[in-house]
What we know:
Distance between the termini: 64 Å
Strand content: 15-25%
Number of helices: 14
Mean pLDDT: 89
Strand order of the largest sheet: 6-5-4-7-8-10-9
Amino acid sequence: xxxxxxxxxxxxxxxxxxxxxxxxxxxxxxxxxxxxxxxxxxxxxxxxxxxxxxxxxxxxxxxxxxxxxxxxxxxxxxxxxxxxxxxxxxxxxxxxxxxxxxxxxxxxxxxxxxxxxxxxxxxxxxxxxxxxxxxxxxxxxxxxxxxxxxxxxxxxxxxxxxxxxxxxxxxxxxxxxxxxxxxxxxxxxxxxxxxxxxxxxxxxxxxxxxxxxxxxxxxxxxxxxxxxxxxxxxxxxxxxxxxxxxxxxxxxxxxxxxxxxxxxxxxxxxxxxxxxxxxxxxxxxxxxxxxxxxxxxxxxxxxxxxxxxxxxxxxxxxxxxxxxxxxxxxx
Length: 331
């Protein structure tokens, strides 16, 4: 409440037993008028009348959800005077047998809510994946996982192509540097990312990235490495631009025998075996490399994919810096 009514007016509001029972129930749970009628065993006209009094005096607030209207107590947002009055009244109300019966009926109302949901899932368990896909699409959960990104991160989207991944990441991180060698791809990326103020698109080779040393928290290489002549140099560059504790996420094709991809799509490598990818990451100086197969998508026509994740350790960065300084004579 932004202002307090005189104490005698507040006492008058709470002098009615039905209103105090309503407030006691609504302090514990948000409820509809129909549910409050069940809890108090009172007619709708009575419940609605007392809710209006409580609402007019600022003790109760409401919100609409579809065709229903839910009510909740504002007891935790009251002014000092109202709060003291309510604590005194609630102590008396909660100790009554009527309050105990109301609480039992409140538990029953909440159980009915849970039962309704349980019945739905019981009836649709076998078809739930299809129902969820029809309602929300097939990849909302994957996109939602982007919320795990640190909002202060700077991300290097390496081989960004038309900017699809940068567009997905942009709302969740502080900055993105999107790099690709193809002017045509970058033209599409700039169009796609025109409204993303935190994405900078740069043209450059993955073997010599136009990104400062240790300036990024995450580097991504999604369906890129099989196109490059020297994967080891690309991985070394990715490590160079990452800070200590930074991480590389790499998605690419598992080893396959589709030789036509070389001519059709300019593939240099026919995918990578897990052990080869782990070796390449280790040789590039990454730590804790993890390679996992991704579940095949039902409609996908290409080879199976894998995800590789690896980190830049603080110790590894320190050793690399020391070695570079030793080789160059810099102290």
